[in-house]
Amino acid sequence: MNYKAIFAAGIPFIGAGIVFMTSVNKSIGVALIGIGGMFMIIGGKNKDKW
pTM for the whole thing? Predict the structure, then answer.
């Protein structure tokens, strides 16, 4: 499993969540930020496997 890619995939999710939260729908934005944060946490916890 490529944990570096999972960490990197979390960054656009957080960005998209901020955009959705401010312009479209607050609940979708919060969900996208949560998904992005989870991706970054999973990737960061397995940094030794990069």
Answer: 0.83
Tens digit of pLDDT for each residue in 14-43?
999 999 999 988 999 999 999 999 999 999
Structure tokens at 12: 């656009």
* Amino acid found at 45: K
CB atoms within 10 A of CB 43: 21
Q: What is the largest CA-CA distance in the chain?
A: 38
The SS3 assignment for 25 reads coil
Q: How many CA atoms lie within 13 A of 42 on its CB side?
A: 16
CB 15 within 8 A of CB 34: no
